[in-house]
Amino acid sequence: MSTADLLRRQLRDFAAAAVIAVLFASCAFVAGRNSDLAEHQLGLASRSVDQLIAGGEALPTVTGALVAPATPSVAHPYLRHRQLRTPSGWRDLQPSEKWMYDAVTRFDREGAFTELVPDGTGRAIAVRAAEETTAIAITSPTTPAPYPFLVMIGVLGLGLALTAAGSLVGGRAANLGALAGIAALAVPTALWHAWIATTAIALVAAGVTLAQHARLTDRLSDGLVRHRTALGFLMPAMIAMFVLVAAPFLIGIVLGFYDHSHNTWTFVGLANFGEILSGGGKQLDDPLNFWFILGVTVLWTLANVILHVTIGVALALVLSRTWLRGKGIFRMLLILPWAIPNYITALMWHGMFQGEYGAMNSILHHAGLSGVSWFSSWATAFSANVITNTWLGFPFMMVVALGALESIPKELYEAASVDGASAWQRFRHITLPHLRPALGPAVALGSIWTFNMFNVIYLVSGGAPGGSTNILVTDAFHWAFERGERYGMAAAEATIIFLILLLWTVFGNRVVKSKDADA
Amino acid sequence: MAMNRKPRLAFLIAAHVLLIVVVAVVLYPVMLVCKKAFEPGRDFALSASPIPTDVTLDHFHDLFDKRGGHGELLFLRHAFNSIIVALATTVFGVAISCTAAYALSRFRFPGRKAGLTTFLVVQMFPATLLLLPLYVILNKIGLLNSITGLVLVYSTTAIPFCVWTLKGYFDSLPRELEEAARIDGASTWMIFRRIMLPLARPGLAVTALFSFMTAWNEFIMADTFMTDESKYTLPVLINSSVGAFSADYGLFAAGAVITSVPVMIAFYVLQKYLVGGLTAGAVKG
Fold first, then answer.
1. Which helix (H) or strand (E) holds B221?
2. Cβ atoms A310, B14 nearer than 8 A
């Protein structure tokens, strides 16, 4: 390899590694800068309060005061006054000092606190009890340090120089130069004490060197050049999928390791998964126990898929008869439930199952039966959901089965009849084998849809009674939005649902494939 | 039960009766909703009969005349939101997907199979699994309760769907034209832009209509992400009309009829493509 080629290769690899390294360093800088700033501001507020309590003044850039306990106003006893101590004695709070009044009121309710003011100005506030009064201090607004462009350009230049120098020397020095050049980018992160980013950049440097050694970077770059048209065409969708699907998906997994309460996230490791999988200390027949919900979900999926396939195939068998009159009209009317938006179907059936005046109970009355309070027992609420979803879902299976049946060559049946095969034998040996390849994927797809049929459960029974007819997806939704914003639990449950679906897809594929092998 | 032979009369009658019964079961709830839309009163089906006793347009009138906090006409507002969200999702989804669908159909490159599987799996798995992270992210970047945010959320399902259906359509187009154009010295982009895209117009139209319908019919994301009444879409409005505290089934039925009739017509026009697309994707993947 000539020196020019070597130089070009080394610079190419350095550039690729530098993009990643700068990304890491920038993230580390922003995170470190924000936490340093917060720590500094909180420290200022806290020390100022200490000094106020000790009888001194707040620190220079900090506004601090001692506020007296609230006293009822003389004119309007339901209003309360507070007074502020100044060097010359007590005075009333000004309207512009309402924040002090609010902070002390909160202190009376919740006790001492030190925190950042959540208004984006970077101010920190500290409130603590002083002798007979309350000490309060707030720092001045502050802006974070600017991005260190000069430092970054400097290290990039240094890395570039190291890489180039190594390549010009050639041989082993080329690899060493690139290694040192990329590693140089870890210097600023090390100075910021951002150890994760430093390690990551060091790993990138080592990885690039190893990859160069195995000629991986050459092959990657060749591949990218050779398939650059395909890459260009794929790029928009790839970027969109990464930003809109992959990133939220990964963030969702990460959120499962955090607990969310009062707008703060705390890392809790596997605690959410533990709480879900252990049933949260509830009995197995408790509607909030994960295993109970999983059982309901599996039962729900099984019941629906079996009903969909049975009804769908039965109707398709009837519809595929050539002697049937009005076939087109029947088919058109039978797929009506598929055409209706499913939230409307769910709301409509919810209305029909409504206790006192619903259509279902009217029909029962007409039939001489007594009405049922559909949503007050598990069995009837679950049945209401299943009835709705069966009504909604059978047309899909019917259409798939009808398509498969119509593709069976008529000669097969004629030949079988000539050979004296019975109706059952013709069904068993001709119809069924032709249905299976079309129904297999449809059942796989249908089972995934049913497993996650959010709208029907959420809008028909809403989990009633007592959450016992919830399935996993609606339960996760309840964790997020109806049980005190337990986002971590919801995220963990979504991850578990994903794993179950993944297992099911892989397992289902195996079954379908082995069946195909038999046929 | 050979297909061409005429069966016994009893069997023939039984088959027709069975179909008529199922059709009745299918039609009954729909007729109840239509009845409710034109019948006075807020309650749903005091009688089991699907024939209205009295006809009125009051519910439609109420629906159009429902006003929000600033006196704006809510139904028109929500219909407008729905149209904008569904249109934007469709345009964004098809525009982003068409080049990728073409590449997956025509080019051979390492990772193609993995890419196809990814799009298929993402399309199969429910978007509700992403609801929470999307909520947290949109909240963080201030796109909660905004049309833009909802369009981005809908794109998570629209893009993989469009890639798969369009790829299937490109697969069905002949390759001869492209080869001829290539011999004449056309670049890949020219071929795509000037030949394939115009040829794929029917496929693009069908894909676009389906993504439009999906976005138009989506309920739970819109219900969760849109907190401000003026930002609701039609499904949220329809659901809120039968809320726990004031259920007005007349309003619901009127809204349901107006909202679903257009998509139902579209569905009937397009249904033959839908079945083909769904199973073709699943079988080939």
1. helix B220-225
2. no
Please check the confidence at residue B102 and state whether its pLDDT lies above 50: yes
- Residues of B in Cβ contact (< 8 Å) with A344: 33, 238, 256, 259-260
Half-sphere exposure of A141 (CA within 13 A, CB side): 5
Burial of A41 (0-12, 13-18, 19+ CB in 10 A): buried
Domain with CATH 1.10.3720.10 in chain A: 295-485
Are A133 and A64 in contact by the 8 Å Cβ rule? The answer is no
C-beta separation of B127 from B168 below 8 A: no
DSSP A145: P
* CB contact (8 A) between residue B239 and residue A459: yes
> Which phi and psi angles does A62 have, rounded to 5°?
-110, 140
Q: Which of A248, A303, A261 is nearest to A471 (CA)?
A: A303
Query: In 3D, which of B159, B34, B42, B18 has the Cα closest to residue B101?
Result: B159
CB contact under 8 A, A490 and B132: yes
Burial class (CB in 10 A: 0-12, 13-18, 19+), B256: buried
CB-based contact A460:A435 (threshold 8 Å): no
Q: How far apart are CA A11 and CA A32, in angstroms?
A: 30
CA distance to partner chain B, nearest, from residue A469 (Å): 18
- Give the CA distances from residue A70 to residues A76, A77, A81, in Å, rounded to whole numbers and listed in that order: 13, 11, 5
Q: What is the DSSP letter of A127?
A: E
The token pair that represents B202 in the structure block: 């029917």
**Which residue in the block uniquely carries the two structure tokens 């997907």?**
B97
Phi, psi angle pair for A483, to nearest 5°:
-125, 55
Q: Say whether domain B70-284 belongs to CATH 1.10.10.10.
A: no
Q: Are A385 and A469 in contact (CB under 8 A)?
A: yes
| pTM of the full structure | 0.82
Cβ pair A38, A206 in contact under 8 A: no
CA neighbours within 13 Å on the CB side: how many for A485?
A: 10
Rg over CA atoms, chain A: 35
Q: How do residues B5-33 score in pLDDT, each as one tens digit?
A: 567 888 889 999 999 999 999 999 999 99
How many angstroms separate the CA atoms of A162 and A409, rounded? 73
The C-alpha atoms of residue A395 and residue A391 are separated, in whole angstroms, by 8
Contacts of A491 in chain B (CB under 8 A): 132-133
Cβ neighbours around A332 below 10 Å, total: 14
Quote the tokens at residue A489. 């639990």
Substitution target in B6, B12, B13, B19 with the highest count of A β-carbons within 10 Å is B19
ipTM > 0.95 for the complex: no
Domain parsing of chain B, residue ranges? 9-56, 70-284
Query: If pLDDT is split at 50, 70 and 90, which confidence band does B47 have?
Result: low
According to CATH, the superfamily of the domain at A295-485 is MetI-like (1.10.3720.10)
Contact B83, B91 (CB under 8 A): no
- pLDDT of the residue at B285: 30
